[in-house]
Structures are given as structure tokens and as C-alpha cells.
Amino acid sequence: DYPGGLTVFLSQAQLNALLDREADYFNGYFSDQELTFADRNVVATVITPAEMAKFGDQMLSSFNQLAPLCLFAAVVIYLVLMVVLTKLVIDKNALYISYLKVFGYETAEISKLYLRATTTVVLGSLILSLPLVKLGIQGSFYLVQMKLSGYLPVYLPLYLYPLIVAIGLASYLGINFLQLRRINQIPLAAALKNRE
């Protein structure tokens, strides 16, 4: 694993043969000491550790301002998706929920029947999607950095994974609470009406 990016290591002779270059051709150097060249026109750019540190600080500053906005947008999209999902489940089963009320079931028992399965699926999806989240973030950073002159490896601390699950679960439980109120509002009369 090499954090410098997408890298292929070859000997100079193999690389020059692959690129159809002369055997002594070479176009890049990494050095911890300043290199001197007789002709300064052959040097395209020199990146010093100070410039890389400046690049890193600029990236962190930019992403620190962007991260809360991305988090807010992601939570809003997630909330809308969960509202639609749970509303669909309850609306499709409103008649059966009113039947259960006629038969004497309590709201808590009805919610176990209709919302527990959704809760289990949501929790499982949150946990199972963590590797996809990691790949998505790494891929996004890779695309962002393609046009930049520096590279920063993506590091996601372990505490973020339970935080992602906690935010998702807390958001869903809030929606679940609202849907329990909708279950309470389903009238008993819906079951007693003549249905064709």
C-alpha cells in the first residue's frame, strides 16, 4: 500500500522500453536535498516540504468549511428517504392497522409489527454500508485531488464509523416517533367501512 497515489514501480529500463524512450531517459526525481542542474529549463517544478504543508493546510481549511454542509445535506436526504419509506409502509397498511385496532391491539404492538422490520433493515443497512461510505469518500478525494499539484492520503478515524451509524439511527428514531403518531391517527372506522 503506497499512499502516493496510483503508482506502478518499474525499473528505469522497463519504463523506458514501455514508453519507447532511450535507455538513459529520466524525467522525475525525489530528493531530500536540493538538486542542481546545469540547465534550469529542464526543471518543470520544484515542490518543497513547506509548499506541501501549505497545500495541506489549504485543503484542510477548505474541507473543514465544506464538511458541515455535506453532513447537513446528507442528513436531509436521509431523512426524506426514511420519511417516504415509513410513510409508504404505514399508508399501504392503514386498513390492516385499523383492523388490528378493532381487535384490541395497542399502538406499541402495531408499531412492532410494521416499524420493527423497517428499523432492523435500516440498522443493518447503516452498518453494512460503512465500507461503501469509506470507498465513496476515498474516491471523492481522489477525484478532487486529480487536478491539484499535491496529494493528501485519506484517513478516516475509527470513531467516525460509530458516529455515522449513531447519526443515521438517531435520525431514523425521530422519524419513527413521528410515524407512531400517524399510527395513532388511523381511525377505527376505516376497518368498519364497507370495502368492495
What does this structure look like?
Helix 2 packs parallel to helix 6 and helix 4 runs antiparallel to helix 6 (160-185). The mean pLDDT is 80. By secondary structure, the protein is mainly α. It has helices at residues 12-18, 49-92, 94-102, 107-128, 130-145, 160-185, 189-192.
Labels describing this entry:
196 residues, mainly alpha, 0% strand
- What shape does the CA trace take? elongated
Oligomeric status: single chain
Report the uncertain regions: none
Structural class: mainly alpha
Q: What is the helix fraction of residues, given as a range?
A: 55-70%
> From the alpha-carbon coordinates, what is the Rg to the nearest angstrom?
29 Å
Distance N terminus to C terminus? 66 Å
Biggest sheet details: none
Quick gist of this model?
It is elongated, with a radius of gyration of 29 Å. With 196 residues, it is an all-alpha fold. Helices cover 65% and strands 0% of the residues.
Strand-helix topology:
Elements: H1 12-18, H2 49-92, H3 94-102, H4 107-128, H5 130-145, H6 160-185, H7 189-192
